[in-house]
Amino acid sequence: MELTNDLFLRAARGEAVERTPVWLMRQAGRILPEYRAVRGRLSGFKELVSTPELACEVTLQPVDLLGVDAAIIFSDILVIPEAMGLDYEMIEKKGPWFEKTVASEADLNQLREADPEEGLHYVLEAIRLTKQELNGRVPLIGFAGAPWTIFCYMVEGQGSKTFSKARKMLQQQPALSHRLLDLITRSTIRYLKAQIEVGADLVQVFDSWAGILGPHLYRTFALPYLQQICDAIQEAPITVFAKGAYYALPELGQLDCQVIGLDWCMDVAQARAAVGPEKSLQGNLDPSLLYAPKPDLKRAVKIMMDDFGSRGHIANLGHGVYPDTDPEQVKFFIQTVKEHKF
Amino acid sequence: MELTNDLFLRAARGEAVERTPVWLMRQAGRILPEYRAVRGRLSGFKELVSTPELACEVTLQPVDLLGVDAAIIFSDILVIPEAMGLDYEMIEKKGPWFEKTVASEADLNQLREADPEEGLHYVLEAIRLTKQELNGRVPLIGFAGAPWTIFCYMVEGQGSKTFSKARKMLQQQPALSHRLLDLITRSTIRYLKAQIEVGADLVQVFDSWAGILGPHLYRTFALPYLQQICDAIQEAPITVFAKGAYYALPELGQLDCQVIGLDWCMDVAQARAAVGPEKSLQGNLDPSLLYAPKPDLKRAVKIMMDDFGSRGHIANLGHGVYPDTDPEQVKFFIQTVKEHKF
User: Interface pTM (ipTM) of the complex?
Assistant: First the structure.
């Protein structure tokens, strides 16, 4: 189906665009009263993730209500460990929690490579439905967690300030770590391919805990697996967002991907110099600026837009939008991007 | 009193040293069974912090047991908010918790500038005692949190992954934010001067949440207050450790301080280029390397030592030592630094 608005995909490929496209990480979610209304009727977060009609409904909300240039399927990066054999719960105000974790070879041997048609059919169905309902208005983004970030949760079993348990495994059991990372990577490749197969126009890989590894370990335990994913995914463009990994920008620039996401701490000119001229860049407004009075927000958006320039930029925040952000401020951010004159 | 071992202070001033001095952030604490024995007899963490004899005892433990080249007074950065009028509790496995926080001008008006002799006498007494007991063996480090980091806790009231509440205040109430940062700064200057007065040989300022602000906000809300502190403290050398603020290294290099601390994600050569040649650097081994087999740890220490070079370096981790680290590994780290040949 022809897209009415393909600004996002053209910017991802570095093509000239009439204006810079814009969307927000976590745009489908807690900032919208319409989302909270859906969520309030349910037993929990996982019911929403695993029910295609509901995931579709909340995926469409920001397209209808906020006017973003792309939709992102409502889901969670932890569906992959689950499809590999590690169930998780999402505990309100605390985050994810896994009853079983991976600590030994025996634990690893109980896991399987995720089969998207089996363990992740509900996400694929949500994507199919959403593509139908979008009816070509804007592109649909699929996504997965990066292998290192998924590894963090599978070893740690929950969120952590330091992920020192996951990092201990890298130090003490490097061969086991690589085996687990490899299994996650193979699962992720199949999953992303399946998402594209059923309609995702671009896929984004979130390396949320990239910033905790440091240059040497990132090169050993994260980049090779990102490279495998980028090399394998040729069916659609791919965005790599390695939060906090400023030190790996030159290597990220060498990946066979189309877009590199920047967090809000990264200086745009320095990031562009590190990444090189070929990739499009996505980001990177400080999410806390959405709390600011409109004139301050407007000023910051203008600076960001001029820093990135008119080509090869997808406007976004430098991290997911914070839950208590006023949707009116989000609309103003989107409008300011859309009206920007270079 | 003459110091038997003044390597740490000479390296801080950039002087030539026979060998690189070494200590560890959080060396006095949970890694040592001897510490846990003391702690186990007490009602809680705060009893330890507020009892000079006990704080002295656990401050000396790593000097006796690990052979570090400096002691750091056992205390907490949150003694400053407490002395300003915001009590905190330290909840086991959860971290700090404040019943009152600062949200408005009325809240701010209830706070006072900390008077070290009144609200912080127990820290000063612990420093006096520790200096006596050290008897010149190694220098004693005093410390405080940086104004931005203290602000985070006073506004947020507890730890946070994003400190979005504190960052919201910067955006929505910048004048109030500056007033609070100013009050924290004045309190901190008096506190650090008092620590030096009673015997601290060097003071370190910990900006633990520096990495969350980004370049622009760090320049507005963090650096000016660090500068005030550095300008005011002329009685002893000062170390500034701004964790995660790689983007501010050039500005940190302009502060009137002697040492800049580096976290483990920062590349040593790049950091040196950003900071300039004048400052000494402290750091920056990945704390997770203390989990590694000895040959791997040894190799990493050697690389680190050669990266920093023989002059103007204080060896340390790039963050506090993790609680479950084997003290034997810490000893091996220290020994490897001490035996390093350039």
Answer: 0.96
Residue A265: pLDDT band by 50, 70, 90 thresholds?
very high
Q: In chain B, whose CA is at the least distance from the CA of A167?
A: B288
Residue B294 lies in a domain: yes
Residue B76 annotated in active site: yes
In chain B, the residue whose alpha carbon lies closest to the alpha carbon of A263 is B214
* Alpha-carbon distances of A180 from A84, A107, A150, B46, rounded to whole Å: 11, 10, 10, 41
**Distance linking the first and last C-alpha atoms of chain A:** 32
> Contact at 8 Å (CB) between A257 and A243?
no
Among B172, B293, B322, beta carbon nearest to A162: B322
Q: In degrees rounded to 5, what are phi and psi of residue B206? A: -100, 110
B171 to A324: CB separation less than 8 angstroms, yes or no: no
Domain count, chain A: 1
pLDDT in tens, B132-164: 999 999 999 999 999 999 999 999 999 999 999
Residue owning tokens 């029910």: A51
Q: How far is A244 from chain B (nearest CA, A)?
A: 9
Rounded CA gap, B58 and B49, in Å?
10
What's the CATH number where A240 sits?
3.20.20.210
pLDDT interval class at B1 (50, 70, 90): confident
Q: Which residues of B touch A287 (CB under 8 A)?
A: 162, 164
Domain presence at residue A242: yes
CA nearest to A318 within chain B = B214
Contact A247 B264 (CB under 8 A): no
Q: Are B328 and B292 within 8 A, CB to CB?
A: no
Pairing of the two strands B95-98 and B88-91: antiparallel
Answer whether B243's CB lies under 8 Å from B211's CB.
yes
Q: Are B307 and B269 in contact, with CB atoms under 8 Å apart?
A: yes
Which is the catalytic residue, given B10, B13, B19, B39? B39
Q: Domain for residue A102, yes or no?
A: yes
Residues in chain A with CB shorter than 8 Å from the CB of B269 are: none
Residue spans of alpha helices (H) in A6-84: 7-12, 33-40, 45-50, 52-66, 79-84
User: Which residues span the domain enclosing B146?
Assistant: 7-339
Chain A residues whose C-beta sits inside 8 Å of any chain B C-beta? 159, 161-162, 164, 167-168, 170-172, 211-217, 244, 246-247, 264-267, 286-289, 291-293, 296, 318-319, 322, 324
Is B267 within 8 Å of B242 (Cβ atoms)? Answer: no
Whether B148 is covered by a domain: the verdict is yes
DSSP 8-state class, residue B260: E
